């Protein structure tokens, strides 16, 4: 099986090979590989390549380059969506929009945001515009998402196959009432996104994490009595059942229920909006409790989960700030490096960068100071994902943009994410596929500044950027601050790190 998958992978990536061109001309013609239906006489090897598609689809995703060879509707190309695809093929409604570069602004390498938000659900639209279009002319690039560097390996394929046999994947959502789902307004956007993610099986429960991370124990954090799949954690777990039953929904979960079937049932009910909002808040509450148990080793109580959900439910007209504790991104602690912040040389500025993440979103932040430790400006940006390396790379991107804003001709960009820094310094040659485009963008912006140096620092010396990122993710702030108005969340650090005048 892995051999056939490897062959299929080569078919998809070696498009200049003769054998690929022959097969394409013979069978595929102008059809899309992912949706092509074989008919009549086809060779056995071609048949097996086509049959391996279903497995291959779990790991393949395009990285947008010039956008000319990616079919918006049929190809996998959105890395932050589980399955990487647009949920509904609406080509019929948009006959002239087929290729990803049809979503670009004319002659520019930027997304046509108006068009995208008109065409797609807000969630999908946001995830599309989060994709970075490379600054240089580059071909679209198909990558295998299950290895860090994006190349197919038989071993990663075996792991994928093995994990699928063991997992309880959600059933296909063919008749799910998506239109009604998107129309629901009376729930916080954060919870709405969360529900969308659990419908796509896209939250980091142990069952999902253990497919990719060795050593993650696949056990439910609430009941310790079952594999922690999304369906278990939120529906079939004894704790979840207690919460759902104790709530005003009074729900008795049936063994045949799945997450999509329960949510679809709520939405289709005549009291759909209320039921959905209440249920969504309950799921969210269970998920947050689980995270507290996992990450803070705290206890949980069914009553508290119901109470928190009801509070959230009754607050739904304004964005929730329900005391979420943003956890910072893990980054390796090196023993080398300074333990406190040090100012840059004269005539040079230093920009510290860092990221912080809350379960579903993250912030990237950058803080600039001069050789006297005086504040020159800072910036932060919210991301709709929490993959550490993406957030760390984005923090550097914010840093380099800050350097441009300040008009700096010499700057040091300093952060505690060693891998990203090593790549920019040229000490690490393999760039993970997830950050390939943003790294090329960082390099291209950096090339417009006379002197830029990237440097690693111990996280203890990166306090200002860290505090700003943490504050920004807690309050969903994307903003720039100028030299005369530093945000209050970092003013103490700026003061204490300022070198004392002699
Ligand atoms: Zn459980």
UniProtKB/TrEMBL annotation:
Residues 175-242 form the Reverse transcriptase zinc-binding domain. Keywords: Nucleotidyltransferase, RNA-directed DNA polymerase, Transferase. It holds the Pfam family zf-RVT. The keyword Glycoprotein does not apply. InterPro entries: RNase_H-like, RNase_H-like_dom_plant, RNaseH-like_sf, RNaseH_domain, RNaseH_sf, RVT-Znf. Residues 352-471 form the RNase H type-1 domain. One of its GO terms (molecular function) is RNA-directed DNA polymerase activity. This is Reverse transcriptase zinc-binding domain.
């Amino acid at each position: 099986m892995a051999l056939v998958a490897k062959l299929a992978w080569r078919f998809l990536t070696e498009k200049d090979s003769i054998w690929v061109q022959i097969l394409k001309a013979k069978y595929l013609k102008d059809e899309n590989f992912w949706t092509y239906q074989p008919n009549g006489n086809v060779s056995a090897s071609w048949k097996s390549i086509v049959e391996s598609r279903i497995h291959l689809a779990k790991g393949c995703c395009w990285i947008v380059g010039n956008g000319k060879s990616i079919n918006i509707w049929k190809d996998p190309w959105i890395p932050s969506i589980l399955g990487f695809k647009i949920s509904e093929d609406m080509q019929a409604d948009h006959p002239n929009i087929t290729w990803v570069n049809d979503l670009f602004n004319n002659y520019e390498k930027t997304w046509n945001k108006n068009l995208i938000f008109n065409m797609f659900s807000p969630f999908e639209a946001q995830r599309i515009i989060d994709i970075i279009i490379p600054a240089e002319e580059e071909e679209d690039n198909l990558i295998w998402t299950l290895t860090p560097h994006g190349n197919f390996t038989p071993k990663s394929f075996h792991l994928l196959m093995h994990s699928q046999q063991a997992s309880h994947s959600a059933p296909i959502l063919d008749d799910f009432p998506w239109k009604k789902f998107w129309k629901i307004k009376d729930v916080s956007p954060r919870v709405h996104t969360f529900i969308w993610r659990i419908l796509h099986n896209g939250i980091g429960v142990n069952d999902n994490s253990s497919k990719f991370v060795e050593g993650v124990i696949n056990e439910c954090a609430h009941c310790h009595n079952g594999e922690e799949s999304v369906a278990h954690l939120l529906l079939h777990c004894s704790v979840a059942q207690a919460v759902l039953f104790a709530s005003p929904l009074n729900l008795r979960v049936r063994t045949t229920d799945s997450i999509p079937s329960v949510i679809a049932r709520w939405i289709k009910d005549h009291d759909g909006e209320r039921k959905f909002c209440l249920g969504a808040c309950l799921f969210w509450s269970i998920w947050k409790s689980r995270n507290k148990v996992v990450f803070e080793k705290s206890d949980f109580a069914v009553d508290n989960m119901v109470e928190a959900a009801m509070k959230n439910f009754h607050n739904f007209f304004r964005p929730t700030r329900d005391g979420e504790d943003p956890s910072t991104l893990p980054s390796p602690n090196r023993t080398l490096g300074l333990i406190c912040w040090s100012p840059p040389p004269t005539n040079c500025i230093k920009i510290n960068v860092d990221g912080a993440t809350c379960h579903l979103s993250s912030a990237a932040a950058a803080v600039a100071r001069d050789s006297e430790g005086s504040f020159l400006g800072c910036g932060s940006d919210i991301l709709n994902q929490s993959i550490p390396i993406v957030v760390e790379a984005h923090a550097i991107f914010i840093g380099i943009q800050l350097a441009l804003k300040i008009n700096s001709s010499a700057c040091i960009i300093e952060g505690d994410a060693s891998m990203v820094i090593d790549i920019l310094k040229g000490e690490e040659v393999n760039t993970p596929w997830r950050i390939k485009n943003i790294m090329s963008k960082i390099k291209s912006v950096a090339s417009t500044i006379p002197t830029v140096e990237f440097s690693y620092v111990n996280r203890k010396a990166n306090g200002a950027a860290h505090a700003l990122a943490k504050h920004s993710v807690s309050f969903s702030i994307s903003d720039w601050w100028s030299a005369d108005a530093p945000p209050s969340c970092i003013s103490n650090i700026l003061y204490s790190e300022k070198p004392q005048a002699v």
